[in-house]
Amino acid sequence: MIVILKETACEQQIQALRNTLTAQGIKLHESKGEQSHIIGLIGDTKSLDIDSLRADPAVEDVRRVSEPYKKANRKFHPADSVVDCSGVLVGGGHFAVMAGPCSVESEAQITEVANAVKASGAAILRGGAFKPRTSPYSFQGLRADGLELLRHARTQTKQPIVTEIMNTEHLHLFEDVDIIQVGARNMQNFELLKELGKIDKPILLKRGLSATLEEFVMSAEYIMAGGNEKVMLCERGIRTFETSMRNTLDISAVPMLKKMSHLPVIIDPSHAAGLSWMVEPLAMAAIAAGADGLMIEVHNDPAHALSDGAQSLTPAQFDELMKKVTTLVPIFGKTLETL
Amino acid sequence: MIVILKETACEQQIQALRNTLTAQGIKLHESKGEQSHIIGLIGDTKSLDIDSLRADPAVEDVRRVSEPYKKANRKFHPADSVVDCSGVLVGGGHFAVMAGPCSVESEAQITEVANAVKASGAAILRGGAFKPRTSPYSFQGLRADGLELLRHARTQTKQPIVTEIMNTEHLHLFEDVDIIQVGARNMQNFELLKELGKIDKPILLKRGLSATLEEFVMSAEYIMAGGNEKVMLCERGIRTFETSMRNTLDISAVPMLKKMSHLPVIIDPSHAAGLSWMVEPLAMAAIAAGADGLMIEVHNDPAHALSDGAQSLTPAQFDELMKKVTTLVPIFGKTLETL
Amino acid sequence: MIVILKETACEQQIQALRNTLTAQGIKLHESKGEQSHIIGLIGDTKSLDIDSLRADPAVEDVRRVSEPYKKANRKFHPADSVVDCSGVLVGGGHFAVMAGPCSVESEAQITEVANAVKASGAAILRGGAFKPRTSPYSFQGLRADGLELLRHARTQTKQPIVTEIMNTEHLHLFEDVDIIQVGARNMQNFELLKELGKIDKPILLKRGLSATLEEFVMSAEYIMAGGNEKVMLCERGIRTFETSMRNTLDISAVPMLKKMSHLPVIIDPSHAAGLSWMVEPLAMAAIAAGADGLMIEVHNDPAHALSDGAQSLTPAQFDELMKKVTTLVPIFGKTLETL
Amino acid sequence: MIVILKETACEQQIQALRNTLTAQGIKLHESKGEQSHIIGLIGDTKSLDIDSLRADPAVEDVRRVSEPYKKANRKFHPADSVVDCSGVLVGGGHFAVMAGPCSVESEAQITEVANAVKASGAAILRGGAFKPRTSPYSFQGLRADGLELLRHARTQTKQPIVTEIMNTEHLHLFEDVDIIQVGARNMQNFELLKELGKIDKPILLKRGLSATLEEFVMSAEYIMAGGNEKVMLCERGIRTFETSMRNTLDISAVPMLKKMSHLPVIIDPSHAAGLSWMVEPLAMAAIAAGADGLMIEVHNDPAHALSDGAQSLTPAQFDELMKKVTTLVPIFGKTLETL
User: Fold this and answer.
1) Which of A27, A157, A184, A244 is surrounded by the fewest CB atoms within 10 Å?
2) Helices D144-157 and D107-120 sit at what angle, rounded to 10 degrees?
């Protein structure tokens, strides 16, 4: 950490600051030039509160030079993490496709879609039971009944299931779920992250709409700091000024997250643009950029879906897509996981 | 709602769409030009899922023309709402200042700050007990003990207290709190919003870092739809590309929210920029733009605060600020609430 | 175009608006519901000023339903445009790589780099002579001398050259340049665009840092409206809240621009992230998403480059990249242009 | 400037870097900790190219600690600059209002508006002759004829005139203009900025839609580096994700620019939101935040304006606004300039 002193700071103020810092076991290296006086802080600075340091009367600004995350940091774990999702591997060369409807709507619907996406090559079944909706007047999901229908579908296809949790109070309902998803709007629901750190189950953590990559990895760190290191990072589009699509897929997040962290990186091209016709080019781009998996919305009747119809593929469209995925994944040195 | 048809849509597809819509009790008004064919939908379109409509093979795009919120909508409630916070009024010409430390740290600290800000004219005491922190290694707040210390301070100053809730499971701890705050990161924690809709207590809802004003009002609508109409909206800076300060205060949100909704609008200039020296000009701007109140962080020793030191005023700085607030509020036709 | 009337608009105001519109040859289709009264405008609405319409006392809002661009619009030109760049084709299945240094620095440098990138398979040579720099104290380019050195390099490699223009007054210096580049900061330098519309030479138009895709295509429309239809669109990263890289590559721009327009789409992965190690994954993603070409910065000695060293590949790194480009382009059904 | 070394950097690489830097007269102060090795660079680092330094094999990252601007920097010029605009002072306690139509449309229009805004208290007349329009099919301004009409209006009202330049080739037409405006889209048209640095006339520089404040001040530095120090900075709304208004007024820019620089700061509330009803609250906020002036669009017939009708005030609305401006300016310690 580097502290830049104010030009107007007097020696008495600076000495008080030095005393405060060294009292916490920090070593100081000072550099004083004509235009700037800086102090490099050496030691375990993770416990220092940057904001309070900035409030010191002698301080102009403070800059970190090392990352604030540790368990998620590739520097301390150079090898790729591989997350075992009830037998389906993700990361470290293993590429998995998660597919299914935005919302679980009925037994017939989820069973039909589950069978279809399995036949096309999706190793994992997705489906929403608890649904975060912008409007209180929109369909809120089948909730506990939706989880039951997902489990029922799993008895038929044997696919591990991934579904979203919205509240710590629902955690007991997710015991028999294979992968728990944290949605973009809950990426910084820290109480939820803490609880998920206490269980032993893969977590699919979605990036918040305006979360920096550092904040995203810090949310993974929350889960890992609690003891659960089975975290997968999912980029699903960020909020920008662009209006022709719902969100902007941050494809650069793939290589950057892989540099920052050893955790697997999944791309959700369905939510990224919110447009079904754009799923294929974005899915191809994701594989080419180095992603470890895809999460794709598939619905048997998009025009009558209870949510997100505009971005859902039909089973036939998904089957076409999977042919291309199957071709491209090995070209980039990865193995497509199948059941 | 307006449906724009694809140029390639055939009459059979269009007729199928017409049938689907009229079956739901919607009346249709069509306009067919050389370059565009549009259908205006008349009736209660709130239940229609725009995304599914967009997935219809005949549809190019769908645009709403009326607002998706009702209880929060000024069109249906032209008069300003006044929220009674245990005797302190906010809105409809009543202007209230909420002040106190970012985090409650000790009995001595919260009592000292409470007395100081009351003496300067703050009608409401703020203080964080449950703290949402980006890093799991940062101070997480005194939690239930912090709430107890806040209540203790209240016995001395008689100020209503406002403090943040992070999880539905903590709701029982907040029974004796005067105003419950929902933080920016939980603005779309819909399960929490739903629970807050069931109680009878003022809610201070903070805008998410990248929430549009419509999404912000929709989150208020979640609470109000449940039956609790005592909602105050708080703008606290949005995330933009600018890097010289933490967030960008969206001052235009004040007049725009007041046009959209009848709810009171509070400005938090402390979080907006994250810089204590900028609190005063932003607070002045907030009053001038028409805000109904301010939320300001004050700490007795900012350089040693456990959180947010860089943006906290000292009691002396706050006292100076309040002199200016006291002068400016009546110029804009409002009354400063005092105890 | 759709006009949404104010609920408070009186019949007299509405009739005045009707008269104004029909006097301009516009046909009106009205839809009046309980909550909204809208007028669909049929006819040539391109000449209407939306902003003035919004100022009409009867009008709540105005929405366009058709695109404001015509010559660049794929609806009116379904087939891909192919731009002939002095013999190298771009678009319609032809994929071209443009490579070279950020700045032309010396005869030795540009000649060495030109020979190297040609040997690796770059069909077009890029190099900056007039340089837009944020600071007046930074190297501003060799200007006219730089153009001369580029032309000299071309005599050796026979590669068409692409270089940036910054001002209409320099246009006469660019007569012997093969492709004129308009930089991101000049995307809405409309006087420059108008002049480039009058010449008969390919234009590489870069997207502004915060330009919407519609604004981007409108800038192409400026050039095309003047008569020059040889326009290539280049996405080079947009400005977002993310701080770990310089810009965020908008990969979705590739499929969206191709839906909106028939013009070729080029990706510049060097400027997008500003990081040389990220060029490869972004270049791969660009090909997979459907781009028609790449623009890549290569420098013989990046650590001593006069500009943009951090994002420049060495000739050896570029050679490695081109092997992968050569493999991937045909998989996506395109032909790599070579000299 | 601080250089953070890679953990993997070997001593030989580091020594090579040291040699390169000291050869340029830079002194080095090194701090080596367990997790980081940093070098502080002392001396005139303005000529160092950060990007090239980042490309050095030993370097992980580079951070500046001092500002890259000098002439515009308040550190070197603590007192507020006062810009003399043909007798009307701006800055240093002098507050000026610039008002008039978006576009000059006719002699009758500009004369009527000029007389009206003068009568209400606007010291400076604005009016666009060269208009930057997103669409080539929109009204492009009366150009040279518009300048002539502005000069004619000035003979009647004696107000200094401010109008926008779009191209260096038009500079000779602006000789008799009092203040030359550089529009948001040309904020980084560096060739234009350089030419404006050579003349002796006040420049009103508008902030680009997505320019950081540092980039904004750097563009002022371009003009000042050429010798013309009469620069006024104008914030006019930035581009964000918010969609309910055209742009987001960055009110924090006022105090931040005043901290960074000694130049006057003007607010344009008309372009900021693009909504006439929002001009008043934003203008009030601007004064309260410390601005030195306002730029406001006024049109005698907004519903028939050739551009920007939706954001224009009528003369009567402007007169109401000016009564409030006249009251508020002295409360914030400034003097309203009048003719």
Assistant:
1) A27
2) 40
Alpha helices per DSSP H over chain C: 11-22, 50-54, 107-120, 144-157, 190-196, 213-225, 253-260, 269-273, 279-289, 315-331
Helices (H) and strands (E) in chain A, counts: 10, 15
Q: At what angle do helices C144-157 and C107-120 cross, to 10 degrees?
A: 40
pLDDT at residue C297 tops 90? yes
Q: pLDDT tens digits for B308-339? A: 888 999 999 999 999 999 999 999 999 999 98
- Cα–Cα distance between B191 and A248 in angstroms, integer? 27
Residue-level pLDDT at A166: 97
Domains of chain A: residue spans and CATH: 2-63 (3.30.70.1140), 83-336 (3.20.20.70)
Q: In this model, does residue B35 exceed pLDDT 80?
A: no
Output b/e per residue, B281-293; b: 16+ Cβ within 10 A. bbbbbbbbbbbbb
In whole angstroms, give the CA distance from residue D159 to residue D326.
18
Residue pair D57/C303 in contact (Cβ under 8 Å)? The answer is yes
Q: What is the ipTM of this complex?
A: 0.94
> Chain B residues with CB inside 8 Å of D328's CB?
288, 331
The CA distance from D191 to D204, in Å, is 16
Q: Please tell me the distance from the alpha carbon of residue D197 to that of residue C169, in angstroms, as a whole number.
A: 17
CA distance D51 to D168: 30
Q: Which residue of C has its CA nearest to D44?
A: C137
- Min mean pLDDT across C41-55, D166-180, D210-224 is at C41-55
Q: How far is CA B258 from CA A205, B229, B230, B324, in A?
A: 36, 16, 16, 24
CB-nearest partner of A55 from B133, B188, B312: B312
CB neighbour list of residue B141: distance below 8 Å, 6 or more residues apart: B103, B104, B128, B129, B130, B131
Asked whether the beta carbons of residue A42 and residue D32 sit closer than 8 angstroms, the reply is yes
Residues facing B95 on adjacent strands: B336
List, for residues A60-93, the tens digit of each pLDDT value: 888 887 889 999 999 999 999 999 999 999 999 9
Crossing angle for the helix pair A315-331 and A107-120, to the nearest 10 degrees: 30
State pLDDT tens for residues D263-307: 999 999 999 989 999 999 999 999 999 999 999 999 999 988 888
User: Minimal Cα–Cα distance from D61 to chain A, Å?
Assistant: 9
Q: What is the pTM of this model?
A: 0.95
Read off the tokens for D51.
Answer: 């990007």
Distance from C-alpha of C41 to C-alpha of C91, rounded to nearest angstrom: 36
Mean pLDDT of chain A: 94
Q: How far apart are CA A226 and CA A165, in angstroms?
A: 18
Give the integer Cα–Cα distance in Å for C326 and C336: 7
Most distant CA pair in chain C, distance: 76
* Helix axis angle, B107-120 to B315-331, nearest 10°: 30
Beta-bridged to residue B4, according to DSSP, are: B38, B61
Pairing of strands C335-336, C88-90: unpaired
Token couple for B10:
């055939």
Q: Which residues of C touch B (CB under 8 A)?
A: 2, 4, 7, 27, 29-36, 38, 40, 42-43, 61, 63, 65-66, 75, 210, 239-241, 243
Helix axes B253-260, B213-225, angle to 10 degrees: 40
Helix (H, G, I), strand (E, B) or coil at A240: coil
pLDDT at D65 over 90: no
Q: Which two tokens stand for residue C260?
A: 């909106």
Which chains have 3 or more CB–CB distances shorter than 8 Å to chain D?
A, B, C
Alpha helices in chain A (DSSP H): 11-22, 50-54, 107-120, 144-157, 190-196, 213-225, 253-260, 269-273, 279-289, 315-331
Q: Decide if pLDDT at A237 tops 90.
A: yes
Separation between Cα atoms, residue A18 and residue A27, nearest integer Å: 9
